[in-house]
Design goal:
This protein is mainly α. It has one domain: Hypothetical protein af1432 (Orthogonal Bundle), CATH 1.10.3210. Helix content is 55%, strand content 0%. It starts with 6 loop residues before the first helix and ends in an 18-residue tail after the last helix. The chain binds fe (ii) ion. Fe (ii) ion binds next to helix 2. The site of fe (ii) ion (FE2) has 5 residues, from helix 2.
């Protein structure tokens, strides 16, 4: 699926993001969250535009890579500020995106289907920090499926493995086969 994320937004996000673009909360994670979200979206009646923007915005306002309880709320606020410039979401899409951002790190498992897919897409990428996703903390049946978790885990750890083993930086172009990074 063609990405809704524009080159202009990537340039903006690179400039705004306070943390390491290539590290655990940066662009390779965002790209895998988008990928996970679009795979889940094949099974549910959900908004893939909101899911893609969630992937690229939910951690953008982080101020550190550990505890940062306010980052979801800040991401939601930012989404409102940049909607006209970059996203062009309807009022209801924006409020769904904001709900997903605000709730993504609170551990909740009940929400609007689009929001649940956003949260699962993020949690399925925990392998990058050495955590195997626990089905109990996933919201949708598809995400909680053993083989779905395993496939997402493999994608997330491969990146960590390569980066650690060969000392290379994450190559965000490789993290999502559907995502055309050459446009950026
Ligand atoms: Fe995340």
């Amino acid at each position: 699926m063609k990405s809704v994320i524009s080159q202009a937004f990537i340039a903006y996000a690179r400039d705004r993001f306070r943390l390491d673009w290539y590290d655990i909360h940066g662009a390779s994670h965002w790209s895998r969250v988008r990928h996970n979200g679009l795979l889940l979206a094949e099974h549910y009646d959900v908004d893939t535009t909101v899911i893609q923007w969630f992937a690229f915005i939910h951690d953008l306002e982080r101020r550190n890579d550990w505890e940062d309880p306010g980052h979801g709320k800040r991401a939601a606020r930012l989404a409102g500020e940049i909607n006209n410039d970059f996203m062009g979401l309807s009022k209801s899409q924006l409020s769904t995106l904001q709900a997903a951002c605000i709730g993504h790190s609170t551990g909740k498992v009940e929400a609007d289907p689009t929001v649940m897919v956003c949260w699962d897409a993020d949690r399925l990428d925990l392998g990058r920090v050495g955590i195997y996703p626990n089905a109990r903390y996933l919201c949708t049946r598809t995400a909680a499926n053993e083989s779905f978790i395993e496939a997402a885990y493999q994608r997330s750890t491969e990146r960590t493995y390569r980066a650690e083993e060969d000392g290379a930086e994450y190559d965000i172009r490789d993290t999502d086969p559907d995502f055309n990074w050459s446009d950026y």
